[in-house]
Amino acid sequence: MLNTKIGTDLKYASNLLKNGHLVAIPTETVYGLAANALDEDAVLRIFKAKNRPQFNPLIIHLPDWEAVKKYVMEIPADAEVLAKKFTPGPLTFLLKKHPPIPNTQYRIPDLVTAGSPKVAIRLPAHPLTRELLLQLDFPLAAPSANPFGYVSPTTAQHVFEGLNGKIPYILDGGPCEIGLESTIVDFDNQQVIVRRQGGVSVEDIERALGKKVLLKTGVEEHPVAPGQLKSHYATATPLFVGDAVTLARRFSNQKIAVIAFGENMEDVAADFRFQLSKAANLDEAAKHLFSTMRQADACGAEVILTEWLPEEGLGRAINDRLRRATHET
Ligand code: TXA
Ligand code: MG
């Protein structure tokens, strides 16, 4: 058991990372569990701390595109357009990593990419983590800082609840601005493929590119990304999505918590009520989604009921997370 500390000491955090230890870091999307991406022993500690059943590929975090160029073969034209518009920010790029170059350190281990020829690259916007990355001469591999399968953390306290005793330090950067994981984009010839919906909406990506993208985020397909696994992001309390009045009738003999988007669900008989956004704003709802799921999980209810949000903007990414959290489809 480690004594897990929470604080804002960048020097302490960077020293831990340089010595192969784990540090939870704030980003604008969710908190990440970071290790030196070039150090396989350090990366193994991530899988251990998270209790991940298999070695899934990890996103690497860098401060700027100058640093990215050391690790990838090329940056496709579409990626450049998106990079200009959305980075630093909640967008992750799948780019071809280069083969080993003798006598250099610039090689992302296969453990990080799970054998794939592509590496997932992200430039987080959170000022504290940007500052940290600038102090390091290696990228940080970082999945979301939650035990495998549970809701992603959006505060330092959430990280502490899940990983207390398993990591030495949590860098506290306050609550996450966006609250949903990054959108993952892949590039195949002239085609841009969205592999996970997240902090940048599909509409915004298409507007920036001036063309349609392909969506490959299905739950049924064999998952390329484990964020695509069904029953990810799940609460311990069963969660159901659908017409809330009908669901409330079905579970009328149980203690019910409802998670409303805005003013909806007011006519639903419930023991506990939560609201994602007073003004029914999708960006605000995204920011509050995971912390609200945690509150609903901890309030003493036996079931959690909620309704689908509008399929637009971040509503699509929110619905994706609900679909994966739900106990039935
Ligand atoms: O917002 C985020 O992206 C957060 C913060 C901490 O940056 N990170 C995050 O990491 O959500 P994680 O591990 O929970 O999800 C990473 C996703 C996984 O679904 C993984 O399969 C996919 O990225 N991924 C990573 N490397 C990949 C690769 N080389 N090829 C395909 N998918 C990859
Ligand atoms: Mg995750």
Keyword list:
329 residues, alpha/beta, DHBP synthase, Rossmann fold, 2 domains, 11-stranded mixed beta sheet, 4-stranded parallel beta sheet, 11 helices, binds threonylcarbamoyladenylate, binds magnesium ion
Tell me about this structure.
The chain is an alpha/beta fold and 329 residues long. The protein has two domains: 5-215, DHBP synthase (Alpha-Beta Complex), CATH 3.90.870.10; 239-325, 3-Layer(aba) Sandwich (Rossmann fold), CATH 3.40.50. 30% of the residues lie in helices and 18% in strands. It contains eleven helices and 15 strands. It has helices at 10-18, 40-50, 65-68, 77-86, 110-113, 127-134, 156-163, 202-209, 244-250, 282-298, 314-325; strands spanning 5-7, 23-25, 32-36, 59-61, 91-96, 118-122, 140-141, 169-171, 183-188, 191-196, 214-215, 239-241, 256-260, 272-275, 303-306. The strands form two sheets. Strands 1-8-2-3-7-4-6-5-9-10-11 form an eleven-stranded mixed beta sheet, sandwiched between helices. A hairpin with a 2-residue loop joins strand 9 and strand 10 (191-196). Helix 10 (282-298) packs parallel to helix 11 (314-325). The radius of gyration is 20 Å and the shape is globular.
CATH class of the largest domain: Alpha Beta
Biggest beta-sheet profile: 11 strands, mixed
CATH topology (fold) name of the largest domain: DHBP synthase
* Hetero ligands: threonylcarbamoyladenylate, magnesium ion
The span between the termini is 39 Å
Judged by helices, strands and strand pairing, the structural class is alpha/beta
Radius of gyration: 20 Å
Which percent band covers the strand fraction?
15-25%
Q: Which architecture of the largest domain would the CATH scheme give at its second level? A: Alpha-Beta Complex
Strand order of the largest sheet: 1-8-2-3-7-4-6-5-9-10-11
Low-confidence stretches: 220-224
The helix/strand series, from N terminus to C terminus, equals EHEEHEHHEHEHEHEEEHEEHEEHEH
Give the mean pLDDT: 93
CATH superfamily of the largest domain: DHBP synthase
Helical content stands at: 25-40%
**Globular, elongated, flat, extended or rod-shaped: what is the shape?**
globular
Our count of domains comes out at 2
> Number of helix segments?
11
Q: Number of DSSP strands?
A: 15
